[in-house]
Write a structure and sequence with these properties.
homodimer, mainly alpha, 9 helices, 61% helix
Chain lengths: 215, 215
């Protein structure tokens, strides 16, 4: 889920991980790499289209014409992060799948430099970045629904389980503590939040039925 | 939990809700009311010490000397919000207490003008506001621990239950969906998140023991 590592739209990274595509794709990749590097070093406040252009070795008018402003650059970093073949972990059990997923989120949220934290912070500054961040999360949650359907197939969960609500319950405590409450990172957090959601799911908390789920 | 309604430090609002205290307390209240009003109307980007001073009817140097900058003003709004006698709901059951608490959070996060959302957004802009936001949340979570100790006394939960983890599991989905994912408000959210946490708690998810809780 590291936005710095993604290939451009509609392509798949070849085994050697050499940047694919033509000149346009290459320039996009150079620019997005530069955005991530600048963001990691200086945060949102130090991010400028000029510094990105200089770092990427492209002309500033190229950046300006294609991305417009800092918000457009950040939005494209986030959109590029969805252009991958990421799949959620498949460990054979609901709780372990959720724990492995949370481990990835935890690693991204506590990474240095704090790229993911800086992108989330930027989404409070730029509407374009906010919308792209939202698209990326929706894409990730949609891909993760297979964790829940596998658990249903294995008989771990009842057939009508609300996958999205379960996934949000499993992951929300990480975002809440690390992004909003800013509590010190605790390596037990990913496993604990996974276990809580799995126990609640087993107890029927995410069962969908005509009457269930209404307050 | 509305920061606009709080009395100044160390005082309690008299029954008539007239602003208590002397001139200093009165000025503080006028200024903090003005910050909240300006924030509601213009958001963080439109917030200036000059506009706050004008709205509060005090001299701009008064604001500058006492609060320094916009970050200092926001931090004081958040600190003032802790100076109240707020207590968490007491309904007789864990799940209903959590649902009532979530109802308050949901109302604050979906209120118009979006003061709480603007304060959270501001905490990504100003380190002073971020620290004050953190203090306010820690204060609220600490006050809410009584919900869990009452449930332990009633025999609803095992004696060694991690109150903070339970409270975070109960409330995190609201913040995650309304603040970060920006999903459309759903009035079932408060009750559902409360039920999930209560079911997980009954299943032993927040039990503290020498071995429990380690990943």
């Amino acid at each position: 889920m590291n936005p710095a590592d993604q290939g451009p739209e509609g392509t798949r990274p070849p085994p050697t991980r050499r940047r694919p595509g033509g000149r346009t794709a290459r320039i996009r990749q150079q620019v997005l790499d530069a955005v991530v590097a600048e963001l990691g070093e200086h945060g949102y406040d130090g991010l400028t289209t000029d510094a990105v252009a200089a770092r990427a070795g492209v002309h500033r008018t190229t950046v300006y014409r294609r991305w417009g402003d800092v918000g457009g650059l950040l939005a494209d970093v986030l959109d590029a992060a969805s252009d991958d073949d990421w799949q959620p972990p498949d460990t054979g059990s609901l709780e372990r799948d959720l724990a492995a997923l949370n481990q990835e989120i935890y690693a991204a949220l506590t990474a240095q430099p704090p790229i993911m934290a800086a992108l989330i912070a930027a989404s409070f500054r730029s509407e374009k970045a906010a919308q792209a961040q939202q698209r990326l999360w929706e894409d990730r949650y949609a891909r993760c629904e297979i964790i829940v359907s596998r658990a249903v197939q294995h008989g771990e969960l009842p057939p009508h389980t609300d996958a999205r609500q379960l996934l949000i319950a499993a992951t929300a405590p990480l975002y809440h503590q690390l992004v909003l409450l800013r509590t010190a990172p605790d390596p037990r957090l990913p496993g604990h939040a996974a276990r809580t959601a799995a126990l609640a799911a087993a107890a029927g908390s995410f069962a969908k039925s005509p009457s269930a789920g209404h307050a």
